[in-house]
C-alpha cells in the first residue's frame, strides 16, 4: 500500500489515483529532503560503526574469557530491554542535559567551567542514544559467531608460532565476520528509520528523514510524498546492506583462498 500511495497525489482530503512520478522527483531533487536523507545515512553509519566496535570486545570477552555463568552475562546484556525504549531515550535526555547528570559530574570534578552544550539536541546525542539502545542487538550475533569458532584452530596457530594479535586477525576476526555483518545490518537498517530518538534528543540539527516522513503523513497531510520518501529510504538502505554483504563475502572468500 505504501508503494502504491507513492505514485499518487493528495490535495488535503482529495486523493488522486492517477499514476505519477512527481513525488519521487520531489523526494530526490528537493534540497531539504536530500539533506535529511544524507544526514540520516551519516548518523546511521556512525551509530553502526560505534556500536559494532563497542560490541565486539564485549562479545569477545564473554566468549573467550568467561568460562562459567555465560548465561548470566548474556542475561545482563539483555537487561536494558526490561525498560521501555522511550524511557531509555528520556533517561539519556536527563543524562546529557545542560543541567544533567554528566554536566553536573564534570562541574563537580572541576573538569569544566560551564556545562557542555554540544552533547544534547544535535547529532551527537542521537548517536550516543542509538548506540546504547542497539548495543545488545550487535553483541548477541557477534557472540554467537565467536562461540562457533573451533578453539583447536587457535591452539594450532599458537603451536605454529602465531602470537595473540596475529591469530586474532588471521583466524578469529575472519571467522567472526558473519556475526559482524549480521550486527552491522541489524543496527544499520532500523537506525535510519528511527524517529523517536532524533525527535526527543536531536533538536533541529539531529532531525532525520523519518521525522519528515512522519510530518508528511501527519501535519502536512501528504501521504503520497511521505510514501515516496519512505520507499526511497528503503531502497537506499537495502542497497547499502547488499553492498556490505557482498563486500564482506568477497573479503571472506579472499581470506579463505
Automatic annotation (TrEMBL):
InterPro entries tied to this protein: MetI-like (IPR000515), MetI-like_sf (IPR035906)
Main localisation: membrane
SUPFAM superfamilies: MetI-like
Superkingdom of the organism of origin: Bacteria
Residues in ABC transmembrane type-1 domain copies: 37-246
Keywords: Cell membrane, Membrane, Transmembrane, Transmembrane helix, Transport
Pfam family, one: BPD_transp_1
Membrane topology: Multi-pass membrane protein
Gene3D superfamilies assigned: MetI-like
Family designation: Belongs to the binding-protein-dependent transport system permease family. CysTW subfamily.
The protein, known as: ABC transporter permease
Organism: Ruegeria aquimaris
Lineage: Bacteria, Pseudomonadati, Pseudomonadota, Alphaproteobacteria, Rhodobacterales
